Amino acid sequence: MSTSNAAPAAITAIGLRKSYGDKVVLDGIDLTIPEGSIFALLGPNGAGKTTTVEILSTLIAADGGEAQIAGYDMVRQAAKVRRSIGVTGQFSAVDNLLTAEENLMLMADLSHLPKAEGKRRSAHLLERFDLTEAAHKTAATFSGGMRRKLDLAMTLVSSPGIIFLDEPTTGLDPRSRRIMWELIRDLVGQGTTIFLTTQYLEEADQLADRIALLDHGRLVAEGTAEELKRRIPGGHVRLQFSDAAELDTAAGLFGVANKDEESLTLQIPSDGSVANLRAVLDVLDTTGVTAESLTVHTPDLDDVFLTLTGKPAQDTTPQKESAR
Amino acid sequence: MSTAALTPAKTAPGGSTAVRDSLTMLRRNLKHMQRYPAMTISILVMPLLFLLLFVYVFGGAIGTGTLGPGTTRDDYINYLVPGIIVMTATSGAVATAVSVCTDKTEGIINRFRTMSISRGAMLSGHVLGSTIQVTAVLALITGVAVAIGFRPNASVVEWLAAAGLLIFLALGLSWLCAGMGMNAKTVESASNGPLPLTLLPLMGSAVVDPDSMPAGLRWFAEYQPFTPINETVRGLLMGGEIGNNGLIALAWCAGLALFGYWWALRAYNKTVKR
Q1: Of the candidates A68, A79, A109, B16, which lies 20 to 30 Å from A17 by C-alpha distance?
Q2: Which residues form the ABC transmembrane type-2 domain (chain B) (predicted)?
Q3: Is the predicted pLDDT of residue A123 greater than 80, yes or no?
Q4: What's the pTM?
């Protein structure tokens, strides 16, 4: 790509803020995303992920802060930003009454591609996304996985340099999720920058070059998956108890620990070293608390979340993103 | 242009883009109509039902009351049909509001909003599609009316003027209903909004002479938009005094179109969702 204003960063944002009434959704977000990389914004429901995507994709206005997308100011040059981006939102944005092929051709026409080029790209995308058989069926008849694939294919028709994917695999079965992951990886191979939001730690770990953790409208950590894992001393040990009383007693003995009443387990941050394990066992021994079993867990992004936000990522889902 | 490098296939925005994008959206909506003919049929059924009902069921009784003693059913057809044709022009209103609101509540509007397409294109596509649909239904209803005894005495120019006014009315109502669709919370409420519009002609001079109405309603009938439109269409097709009704009719249509355009586009551009 020979662009005269080639910036090393595809997306930069400084101090993005957004509130809905009294509720602060984004409380000062700074981002720098290099061209050709996958960036994952990771956080529980209600953290502000969708709002961030909506602001950066010119869908809603921020209350404060600035951002440049593909070198263009997101407010003053919104039309130019729109020409550089593609967005696949959390809710399927396909035309139900049109066939897969017609949906793709609609995108080609709206992108002002010559007819032949539009046809060529549509056919190519149908094949690449394994939708050729469904090309002449209306989208209303599609399964969730097929709709999501068509949705992404529609975003790709105009070959945008920057793609926003807002929870691209939420609600998909494991097989469809793996297929989406493959498709997303392929895109970056072609130099596309991807801004991904997800509530799945595994997804961020699998796909992203850089990950930022969003919690209550603030970025609580940013780095590569490796860097983030390094920020915590190690993984954790998991103690299984036979009854709730034993679990409660044990929870009181260890300072930072995550108690799961349902499975009667206790997670204690740990670097996995023998010395650390011995210390845990010593505490149990001297206090006479009996654990059924002990497993050592190597660090993953769940641990990062636990350490940085004081709570596990997946247990914070009750409140729906109120921005909607 | 320096931006061309990022997205080589796209042209610069401008007036031609607005037309091109609107036509693309129009093609989309024409395909919808083809896939989902139930809507077009429902648009056709209502005025057809009213035409047959008023000619054959009420026609004998109303005709004498409206046009004086000694008038036949055929005389009443000639009075009634211009009114029914105006009602027909309102029949696409519900469909426009529903299809616009469906786009709004499904995710696709946000896709359009994040694309570099002319801001009014999605709405123009709906409005143009609906206007074409209504024009076709108008032609059909007029054909049926002629078949059951409607005998207009209009010249070609008068026919064209009547058709022009009716299409302009359909366009104005379509924009108004696009505004309703964009500002309705649900598809259900969007489908209720335009209903009064389709009944409004009845409370004017569409099927009876407003002089026969009680004072309050008569006053309303005189000043509501459909009466001058009715009178203009009736004057053009059947002869008779049009007076300043023609100008008032055009002003109403233009007003509806401009207000609807502004109202719908404001909602499309609104940056806060729902």
Answers
A1: A79
A2: 38-271
A3: yes
A4: 0.81
